[in-house]
Write a structure and sequence with these properties.
The structure holds two protein chains of two kinds. Chain A is built from 16 helices and 15 strands. By secondary structure, chain A is α/β, with parallel strands linked by helices. In chain A, strands 2-1-3-4-8-7-9 form a seven-stranded mixed beta sheet, sandwiched between helices. In chain A, strands 11-12-10-13-14-15 form a six-stranded mixed beta sheet. In chain A, strand 7, helix 6 and strand 8 form a beta-alpha-beta unit. In chain A, helix 10 crosses helix 15, helix 14 runs antiparallel to helix 15 and helix 14 runs parallel beside helix 16. Chain B has twelve helices and 14 strands. In chain B, strand 13, helix 11 and strand 14 form a beta-alpha-beta unit. In chain B, helix 9 crosses helix 12. The chains are: A alpha/beta, B alpha/beta. Bound molecules: iron/sulfur cluster.
């Protein structure tokens, strides 16, 4: 990608002229940035096609050192997540190939571990340089999750007693396309950088380096000792994963979109348009039954028919947190006028299609709110003694089966209350019940 | 319907994490965006979701995420980053009962102050509150226009009762067409260049021909990190000024005013519905009462508030929270009028409860 065009002159460096590194003398960040600049220069990518995303910490000062490239200085640990958004939008939406580079320290890598893992799993094209100097430099040399055992830091004055995480192992386990670990004194460092930048997907390089201000004085550290620290902590060095065959996210996404079935626009399934309604005022309905018995979809079918008849509706559903068990309930308003308040204080219709539904009606206070005029349809198996004059026990479960009991009860109640013309109710029955619609119509319209 | 509005506004990027009662928006975007050349992503958490959206927005694409109170709590860090980097972004915050995990399937209006006061420094986060499905679509579309125009994150504040109630929606009365604002470049003047503090810098996308220097740290107009320089303080003032100066252009309210009314109901979100019913019942029984249903909660619609308060002696603010969050915001602006709240959690405030308050003249 980004092959130099004949008219381009070779980019010698992306640094500002006479670059002054703001880091302490001997700080590993200076070497990392020099290697980064060399790697980018070797690729000769036009500056406006590079985005450098930096994290918080000393390494986050890097963006001020570059000329012409896009720089995005982010919040602590989140750099990879912002880079993921930039990279995905660039590849998927713009169809371009912006080179995204992330600079993050050991502190940021651990705060934002989730984002590193996510970018690796998605395989978003970017190069992440994790500058692991074992301490938080900017805040005074505190220990991080990548501080070696026995290491002395401001927060581990007697030596770190917690073994550090193996970040590369985590990223390898997250299917990262390219993972490597190196040190600033490793002669292979430039080559590892070159290979990381050649990777077409997510590439991460953990670079062990020196914080001369805090890590070095307390631990008598030198650059030559970095490889030894890696060994003592079980951190393998070199290229640890290079999976060239794994397609980046945008390639897989384009394929998935191309082969996806065309999305269907759902329309109501009534065999003909419902009849004009004669409803004079708003009607409130509480329909209760058991999970898995098509309670809410029955209410929805009634609502769709009502809308198709020119009425306004609102529908609210409720069920226990685990959606597949216990009760299932819908609260519906149907009205010739736009509906404002959707709460139901005195229901006009209540339907209890099962034991679980009836229990829920009792516990939420619906039973207590039933008035003399409420049409109350229950399955005949349920013991209900109500003060309403319109208690209708019907053979819902036995004659229609559990999956159509709720709809049967609902249609019976709507017939009784003249919510919709019988022709429309019959349409709903035929649409939802198929063969059983005849039985239902017989029962419903004889009410 | 929030998703519908987002699509109409031209949203191309969505990253989300499931949370009741906002999951429906996530699912709708997953279903809708791929076929429209967009991308809807399942993020591993809310922090990733919003950061990925901000990244996509910086790259130049309209982006949105959706969440509820617990997810918003995680997003606040990045909301501030979007504000500081002047990145357009829409966040749909569908409220549920809090605090903490609270009640996932119960509505509430308890996140208003948490959402508005999400920044260190207390910057204004423009906020729109729909009361019904149609407004979810329309106000989300407007939220995108505001986000782009103002270069800032905009919140669409709904709740479980608004977001998870299915209702008839009619778009045949002509839907608003999305406004688009200049995407351009400030040239060599810098990513955040403005002339007067109230001016809004032209948005420049990362990855374009003009260099972008973006940062969440205090910066000058070029985006360079600076401590306390006068220019940096100017930039920080500008972040508020650009919104404050346009407050009068950002007022969206439904005014139902009776000139002779001495009582005014101020409502927003789901409670506007009960308030409308209550006002109608009150008038049916011969009472005079005005109703201001606020859609643009922030910046505060000062002019509409002034108009509605004319001749009014008593103000009632019904809210589904215990402490009267919007009431406290309005309080300094109502002079010596009597201010009363109707506050309740766990259930919607009903028209009869509001009617009772209207009937009691203080
Ligand atoms: S404190 Fe440490 S990491 Fe920071 S610049 Fe100095 S040496 Fe480098």
């Amino acid at each position: 990608m980004n092959a130099p065009t004949p008219t381009q002159t070779r980019q010698r460096s992306y640094f500002v002229d006479n670059v002054q590194f703001p880091f302490c003398k001997g700080c590993g960040h200076t070497q990392v940035l020099r290697r980064l600049d060399e790697a980018l220069s070797a690729l000769n990518t036009p500056a406006e096609q590079i985005a450098l995303v930096t994290d918080i910490g000393c390494i986050g000062l890097a963006d001020g050192l570059f000329r012409d490239i896009h720089t995005v200085h982010t919040t602590h640990g989140r750099s990879t997540a912002f880079a993921t958004g930039i990279g995905l939008a660039d590849r998927v939406l713009a169809g371009k190939d912006l080179r995204v580079v992330v600079l993050i320290g050991d502190g940021g890598a651990m705060i934002g571990l989730q984002h590193l893992v996510h970018a690796a799993m998605l395989n978003v094209p970017m190069t992440v340089l994790i500058c692991n100097n074992f301490v938080y430099g900017m805040t005074g040399g505190q220990g991080s999750g990548l501080t070696p055992e026995r290491f002395i830091t401001a927060t581990t004055p007697d030596g770190n007693i917690t073994p550090p995480a193996d970040l590369c192992a985590i990223l390898t386990g997250s299917n990262a396309q390219f993972v490597a670990r190196t040190t600033t004194s490793d002669t292979n460092f430039p080559d590892i950088m070159r290979r990381a930048f050649a990777s077409p997907g997510f590439a991460a390089v953990e670079i062990l380096e020196l914080c001369t201000e805090y890590a070095v004085p307390k631990n008598e550290l030198t650059g030559k000792m970095l490889a030894g620290i890696a060994e003592q902590n079980g951190w393998a060095l070199g290229v640890l994963r290079e999976n060239a065959s794994r397609a980046p996210f945008h390639v897989r996404y384009a394929e998935a979109v191309r082969t996806s079935a065309t999305p269907k626009v759902r329309e109501h399934g009534f065999s003909s348009a419902p009849h004009a309604h004669q409803l004079a005022g708003p009607v409130s309905i509480v329909l209760a039954g058991s999970a898995g018995e098509r309670v809410q979809s029955s209410a929805a079918a009634l609502c769709e028919a009502a809308i198709a008849s020119g009425l306004y509706v609102t529908q609210k559903n409720d069920n226990p947190v685990t959606q597949g068990s216990g009760f299932s309930l819908s609260e519906v308003w149907i009205s010739p006028e736009p509906i404002q308040y959707t709460g139901i204080e005195r229901p006009d219709i209540v339907v209890a299609a099962s034991e679980a539904g009836l229990r829920e009606l009792t516990s939420r206070g619906t039973m207590a709110s039933v008035s003399d005029d409420t049409v109350f349809v229950v399955d005949e198996s349920l013991a209900v003694s109500m003060r309403t004059r319109k208690l209708l026990p019907l053979s819902l479960r036995k004659s229609l089966g559990p999956k159509d009991a709720a709809l049967g009860g609902l249609l019976a109640a709507c017939h009784e209350k003249n919510v919709l013309p019988d022709e429309t109710l019959a349409l709903i029955a035929r649409y939802r019940m198929g063969d059983r619609a005849k039985v239902c119509e017989g029962m419903v319209f004889s009410v | 319907m929030v998703a519908e509005g987002a699509i109409r506004a031209g949203c191309r990027f969505f990253a989300g994490y499931p949370i009741t009662p906002a999951t429906g928006i996530f699912k709708a975007m997953i279903d809708a965006l791929p076929a429209r050349g967009g991308l809807a992503l399942s993020a591993p958490d809310e922090i990733s979701a919003i950061a990925e959206c901000i990244g996509a927005a910086m790259r130049g694409y309209k982006a949105m995420t959706a969440t509820s109170g617990p997810g918003w709590a995680l997003m606040i860090e990045s909301v501030q980053y979007a504000l500081m980097t002047e990145t357009p972004l829409v966040i749909a915050l569908v409220q549920r009962l809090g605090p903490s995990t609270g009640g996932a399937t119960q509505g509430a209006q308890g996140d208003l102050l948490l959402a508005e006061h999400a920044t260190s420094g207390g910057y204004t986060i423009p906020m729109l509150a729909p009361s019904n499905a149609r407004e979810c679509a329309d106000l989300t579309e407007i939220a995108f226009a505001w986000a782009e125009r103002l270069r800032t994150p905009v919140v669409v504040l709904s709740d479980k009762e608004v977001g998870m109630t299915t209702e008839r929606v009619d778009f045949t009365d002509g839907s608003s067409s999305p406004e688009t604002y200049a995407v351009g470049t400030n040239g060599n003047n810098g990513t955040y260049y403005f002339n007067r503090p109230g001016d809004i810098p032209l948005f420049t996308a990362v990855g374009g021909a003009t260099r972008v220097i973006a940062t969440g740290s205090a910066h000058d107009k070029r985006g360079k990190l600076q401590k306390n320089s006068p220019e940096t303080i100017d930039v920080l003032r500008h972040l508020e000024e650009k919104i404050r100066l346009r407050a009068h252009e950002l007022e969206i309210v439904v005014e139902d005013i009776q000139p002779e009314a001495r009582t005014l109901v101020i409502s927003y979100g789901v409670t506007s519905r009960a308030a409308s019913s209550a006002v109608r019942l009150a008038r049916d029984s011969g009472l005079n009462v005005s109703h201001l249903s606020v859609k643009s909660l922030f910046p505060l619609p000062y002019a509409a508030l002034d108009r509605a308060l004319k001749g009014v002696e008593s103000v009632i603010v019904p809210e589904e929270n215990l402490t009267g969050q919007y009431r406290r915001i309005i309080a300094p602006y109502i002079g010596n009028r009597v201010l009363r709240g109707i506050n309740k959690i766990g259930n919607m405030i009903s028209p009869s409860e509001i009617l009772r308050a209207i009937r009691v003249t203080p």
